[in-house]
Amino acid sequence: MKFSIMLRISSLLSILYIATFCKPNDPEPFVAVEREDAKTIAETRQYNEHQVPTSIRITDPGMEGVFKLDAGDRTTPDNMGTVLVTVNGARYKRAFTGPGIATWFGVTTSDDDIGPELQNAVNAVDNLVIPDGSYTQQTTVRLRSEMTLQGNAGKVMITLPKTYVSLANAIDASIPLKNVVIDGLSWTVTTTETGTNKFGTIYIDSPSVTNLTVQNCSSSDVAARDSTNWFTLKIPAGKTADNIIVRNNSVQAKRMACEIFNHDNPSIYAGKNIQVSGNFFHDSWFGISLSGPLENLTVDNNHIKDCRHFGIEIAGAARGVKITNNKFEGVFDKFLEGSNDGGGNGSLVGGMEITGNSTIGTCTGGIQLFNGGAVTFAKNNFAMTGMLELFSSTKGGTFSENVIESSANKAVICDNSADHTFTGNTISNKNSSVNQATFMSYGSKAVNNTLTNNKIFKGRGGKYYDGVEGGTYKATMNYDESGNPLP
After folding, report:
1. What range(s) does the Right handed beta helix domain occupy (predicted)?
2. What distances in angstroms separate CA 47 from CA 41, 52, 88, 326, one per listed residue?
């Protein structure tokens, strides 16, 4: 028994002795020599000399640059673009000022998927430029805080043949996204994947977001199979979004060009200070949709064309809304759909500001304002097939110096909507073949609507103004198209 135990111990010691001699040697310490060598990236990685240069000038086309030895670093991984690691563990780091260049990391026009290389680049540098050219991306790139991703507007085209999502937030929803700029990129979405219509080419879902700007970009998914957004920002339960800017972009998206929504934080204004301005959104279901409890929204100077449902939609308890200087063109169900109700009951002090907007030609569609509060509706010029419809808790609004031309049987209807003042407007449905009333107060709650000093042009038959089903109005000093006073 004792001999057996001694034999086992002896065998174990022999194994440990042999293992000691078989253990790989640690990299030999290197000695830095003050010189600069010219090498390719492959040659640098294979370098295994005891004496290493303090500087290496990389000669690979598109990746050229000077890399400096960081003798104290033995852990940073090789990413090709800004860090190179030799066989003996020496770390060389690119010396540069200004933005990083995506080609440093292997992002090339010949690559069938720039996603992995672009991800390395995004992880490595705070300001990254993609050079002019046409690229292919099949895997999604995850954004991080404190970064800018940019290209020359109209000269960097990224085709998405497999994924609908080019750029997204980190998978870990606990990681906030702060101080991010996406500037000057273009996309063509051609994937035939299905069942993904909640996504967007730029898709932010889960983290809290602060200071996000998307500008000077363009995109089209007309060749894709499914109906998706271009820009999506979802604010989940317990998260926030603040200072979001979407400007100067040109986009066709089968579903929504720009959707920002807060549906999981009931009665909590988790989205604040949102600006959508200077964009051309066209041939989508919706051009702009901002919905849920959001506040301080500015939708300014956009050109919205041929969005078959809504051009601009403000929905679900938004407050502090300004819709200014936008142009609408083409075919819609409603080119402007608005709700600015605070708590959903019209109790908000003040209301939407809708000023300086216009149509290009005559738009198919009309305008609906639900729960608009005391809306300010001024100096708009709309020619449309539909009507201006005021509903629900849209109450106490001021409508002044507008031109509202409609071919519907009513140009303006206050549907159980009260206490509005119309002054100095031109209101017309003279091209309506069957006119009920150019202006109508409809329903028992549609009371105390006042019209003063307006030009009112009615269509065939019907009345200039009317109160129906208990609706009332007061009209004084109004004129027909010939300047004759109306009773």
Report:
1. 208-382
2. 10, 8, 7, 61
Domain identity same for 408 and 294: yes
Residue 365: left (phi > 0), alpha (psi -120 to 50), or beta? left
Q: What angle do CA 182, 186, 192 make, to 5 degrees?
A: 115
CA distance 482 to 487: 14
- The residue from 44, 73, 94 where one domain ends is 94
Interatomic CA distance for residues 168 and 166, integer angstroms: 7
* 396 domain residue, yes or no: yes
Q: What is the pLDDT of residues 298-328, one digit of tens each?
A: 999 999 999 999 999 998 788 889 999 999 9
Beta carbons within 10 angstroms of residue 123's beta carbon:
16
* 372-420 pLDDT, tens digit each: 788 999 999 999 999 999 987 788 999 999 999 999 999 999 999 999 9
| pLDDT tens for each residue of 132-180 | 999 999 999 999 999 999 999 999 999 999 999 999 999 998 999 999 9
pLDDT digits 0-9 by tens, 125-142: 999 999 999 999 999 999
Total number of domains constituting the chain: 2
Tracing tokens 């988790």 back to the chain, one arrives at 270
Name 94's bridge partners. 67
Select from 75, 94, 113 the last residue of a domain: 94
